[in-house]
Amino acid sequence: MDVVARTSAEVPKSAVSAPEPTPWKLLLWTAVAGLIFGLIGFGEIAEDWLRITRNGFHKHSASGDIVIVAIDDKSLHEVGNWPWPRRIDAALLDRISAAEPKQVLFDINFSFRSNPVDDARFAAALQRAGNVSLFTRSTSGSTGKLVRRESGPIPAFRAHSKLGLASYRYNYQNAIWRIPYGTNFDGEKIRSFAAALADIDGPADVTFPIDYSTDVESIPTYSAVEVLNGRIADSKLKGKNVIIGTAADVLNDNFFIPGHGLAYGVQVHALGGETLRRGIPTDVPWWMPALLAFGAAAFAMSRHQPQWKYACLSAAIAVLLVVPLFFEARLIFVDVTPSLFILAITLGALGWRQAKQRGLVNAVSKLPNLNALQAHRPGRNKAIVAARLLNYEEALSTLPPGNERQLVDQIVSRLAVGTSSRTIYQGDGGIFVWFAEPGDPFGNHLEALHALFRNPARVGKLSVDLAVTFGVEVGSGRSISSRLASALVAADEAARDGLKWRHHDPESLQNASWRLSMLSQLDQAIDKGEVWVAYQPKLELATKRIVGAEALARWTHPEKGPIAASEFVAAAEQHNRIGKLTDFVLEQAVKNAAQINRRDGEFEMAVNMSASVMSDKGFVLRLSALLARHGLAPKYLILELTETAALASSGEGLDMIGRLRDLGVGISIDDYGTGLSTLDYLKRVPANEIKIDQSFVKGIVDSRSDRLMVQSTIELAHSLGRRVVAEGAEQREIVDLLTEMNCDIAQGYAIGRPMSLESLARRLATDRKRSAA
Ligand code: C2E
Ligand code: MG
Ligand code: MG
Asked: Which of 73, 572, 598, 684 is placed for a possible disulfide with 577 were both Cys, Cβ 3.0 to 4.6 Å?
């Protein structure tokens, strides 16, 4: 049963920081903002930029089925200024037709007449060629619908050709993202150049996105003059879809191809044709990914840990950046900026809230800090408990840098024992504070916590000794900050007086002087008879008989009244003044045990030993003399040692225990469960009894984990041949449960409070009568 490992490994989450509620208001505003963003197309620039970037990842070559014949600078240079005489157009068409292309498209305006001879020649060439489409254009109305045919070829040409729609929509950057499939003019269906090049019939007046991941440079392009002069082999044009257009800067048919730069209208048509040859593009409406993004944002914000929130949001953003890439490679186009916008503002709001909270959080441990404590209004009616780690800075300085968090985790896990749902606030320099119910009995809890700190914390391979004291302010109607100060002062006073904890006491001035003198008074008090020994009975559960008692020191001060054993024992231990008290209690206990044994037979007496006794070389001799003097068989004396790391690790301590066992006295490990309690420890310390600490026993009725701890300790101890005593049996149910669990002996208020020798004698007598009856 490794209790330390259990408590330090699982820092209760709630003790670290209270989970935040899901911020529905923030999510609502995010949704509204995302909606507006999407509806007004606010992200167009970013959307275009993202698409261009993605295109870079799946660039591919053109099919080669579409061929451009370009009226380029070279052609203008060799043939002459634009427009050319129509007989040259006719010659060019004848040349191309001779190569037997699939079709020919002229992205050239033939809407005006030139001289009749040339016009006739071109009309004749059109007639000879057959499958030729000529340029027409339309303007779009305010709705974006194509409404009016603007220009078309003159009737002489029109008679021998089809019409090809050369319209497109370009934005403020002169970039064309979409072109139509075609349109209807006066009941006649006209395909766009792109649709004609791909030989598909799309819906009228509907546009599609151009796939700009096709490399425009890979479209076979020949200079018009080269074709005219027969320098291009027929095989290059045979069976191809040939589009002829101007491609010279001086002719002003310039557009911006996203991701490429300046290009010409004819190239845009060719790319449109390439797009449709690959398939029919699908447009996914922007609100679909936006809905998913909103879902992701809501999911992220419902996580409790900030790092999970960030991880969810970042993952969603990454998906939005990457997934469209795979979609677009399959001609599925989706606008993601509204979705990204939703996630970005959620992320921003999260960061902003965290920055705001950072002022209320310890930078290292992420525990709420003392500012947060003071801002916690419900705390006004609560008691404040402050723990001060006396050697925190010192402990930190022995650790490698960056290990503070681990140390704090260990401290918090100990402080949270028994109150795991509590928020613990961390101040600077080893101060930890929490709120408690003012009516709580603090003493036992704080003492149990104090016991937990007897063992060093383990950070990595290092073990760090920690010393702690507690101060309590039960509530005095003052501000939280001044009450906090009082609790801290009380903790400091406890440290100074060698106590485990202290209440803030308004009369502390008088008290402080008393505490200072307490230690010096203790020795005299023993001599004056103010110190006496109380005996708390121990019940054997199998036989329901009182088989022994624990001797507990009591000090009744003539003016102050009873002083708690924990208070003066701890003070005496810390100032090395425990020797006289130990001798006194031992003497009394052994004398009285011998007496009871003579009268009633078989009675064990347990006496608490301070760790310092373990290094007292003469102790074994003195003890055996004491036992002999009072005639008590050593087996009736049990020495209770609190388990400490020092005991197990120092050969000296083990040696001493060995010699005490040789003498014949029993050894009990007191407060078991609050210390180092490893299996190894149990096996090494040759104790014959284990006393499970009351902090576990008290909880067995209500707490499953305490019950498990006690049950498994009993089994473990039995398997090692040790006897088990459970202390803190406060109620009958606990005694019954312990009996069921096969525990050997129980001690606690339900069996009997610590009592005077006379009371113990009476109790034994009635017990005897009852069992005789
Ligand atoms: P301990 O050895 O664990 O003693 C048990 C403590 O629990 C006693 O407190 C006892 O009164 C209390 N107790 C017993 N049954 C119950 C119960 O059912 N519920 C609750 N809540 N408490 C119960 P006490 O007498 O105040 O002693 C406190 C500690 O002071 C002892 O803890 C022991 O460590 C130390 N101590 C007492 N007398 C001596 C002594 O003579 N020498 C040394 N070195 N230490 C002593
Ligand atoms: Mg004890
Ligand atoms: Mg104990």
From this structure: 572
